[in-house]
C-alpha cells in the first residue's frame, strides 16, 4: 500500500477495500480463463450457440478485472494480475471439465457462477460499511454475472423449471448429471 488512499477513507479502510478487491480481481481473472477454456473445449449439438455465447461473457469479465484493478490502484494499492496471485487468492478448485458436450460444460459453469456470485455478494455486503463506490461497481458486475448465469441455466432447465444437474455440488458431478 502506498502512503495515500481515497479522501474520506482511512488508510486502514483503503487497505481493507484494496484487499477485498484483490480477491475479486483474482476471481475475475480465473473466471475469464475458465470461460475461454469452456469456449475451446465444448463440443456436440448446440456447440456454435454456446461457443458464441461464451465470448461476450469473457470480454465483460476481462473488463471487470480491469475496472477492479484500476480501483485498487485508485485506493493506493498495487493490483496483482499474475497467475501466482490467482493461486494465492483461490479458495476454489481449478475447473475440472475438459473436452465435453454442451450440457456437461454448462452444468459445471453454472456451479462456477454460483460460487462467484455468492462470494461477490459477501464482498458487496462488507463494502456497505466502508466504500459505497467500490460496492456500486461490484453491484453492477453482480447483476451481469447473474444474467450470464441465467443464460447458462436456460440451456439446462426443463419446461417444469428443474435444472438437469440439481443437487450436484461438484463440477464433475454436475457435468455427469447433465450429460445423461
Automatic annotation (TrEMBL):
The Gene Ontology terms for molecular function here are: ferric iron binding; oxidoreductase activity, acting on metal ions
SUPFAM superfamilies, alphabetized: Ferritin-like (SSF47240)
Q: Which Gene3D superfamilies match?
A: 1.20.1260.10
Q: Which InterPro entries match?
A: DPS_DNA-bd (IPR002177), DPS_DNA-bd_CS (IPR023188), Ferritin-like (IPR012347), Ferritin-like_SF (IPR009078), Ferritin_DPS_dom (IPR008331)
Pfam assignment, any one: Ferritin
User: Where is the signal peptide, in residue numbers?
Assistant: none
Residue ranges annotated for the Ferritin/DPS domain, each copy included: 19-157
Locate the coiled-coil region(s) and give their ranges: none
Going by the entry's taxonomy, the superkingdom of the source organism is recorded as: Bacteria
Listed PANTHER family: DNA PROTECTION DURING STARVATION PROTEIN (PTHR42932:SF3), GENERAL STRESS PROTEIN 20U (PTHR42932)
Q: To which protein family does this belong?
A: Belongs to the Dps family.
Protein name per the record: DNA starvation/stationary phase protection protein
What lineage does UniProt assign to this protein's organism?
Answer: Bacteria, Bacillati, Actinomycetota, Actinomycetes, Mycobacteriales
Amino acid at each position: 500500500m502506498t502512503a495515500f488512499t481515497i479522501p474520506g477513507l482511512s488508510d486502514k479502510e483503503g487497505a481493507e477495500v484494496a484487499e477485498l478487491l484483490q480477491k475479486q480481481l483474482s476471481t475475475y481473472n480465473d473466471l475469464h480463463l475458465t470461460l475461454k477454456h469452456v469456449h475451446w473445449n465444448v463440443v456436440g449439438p448446440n456447440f456454435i450457440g454456446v461457443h458464441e455465447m461464451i465470448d461476450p461473457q469473457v470480454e465483460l469479465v476481462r473488463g471487470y478485472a480491469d475496472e477492479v484493478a484500476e480501483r485498487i490502484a485508485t485506493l493506493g494499492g498495487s493490483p496483482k494480475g499474475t497467475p501466482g496471485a490467482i493461486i494465492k487468492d483461490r479458495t476454489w478448485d481449478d475447473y475440472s471439465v475438459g473436452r465435453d458436450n454442451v450440457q456437461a460444460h454448462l452444468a459445471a459453469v453454472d456451479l462456477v457462477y454460483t460460487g462467484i456470485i455468492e462470494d461477490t455478494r459477501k464482498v458487496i455486503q462488507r463494502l456497505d460499511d466502508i466504500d459505497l463506490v467500490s460496492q456500486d461497481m461490484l453491484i453492477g458486475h453482480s447483476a451481469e454475472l447473474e444474467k450470464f448465469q441465467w443464460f447458462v441455466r436456460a440451456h439446462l432447465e426443463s419446461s417444469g423449471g428443474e435444472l438437469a444437474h440439481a443437487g450436484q455440488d461438484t463440477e464433475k458431478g454436475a457435468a455427469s448429471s447433465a450429460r445423461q
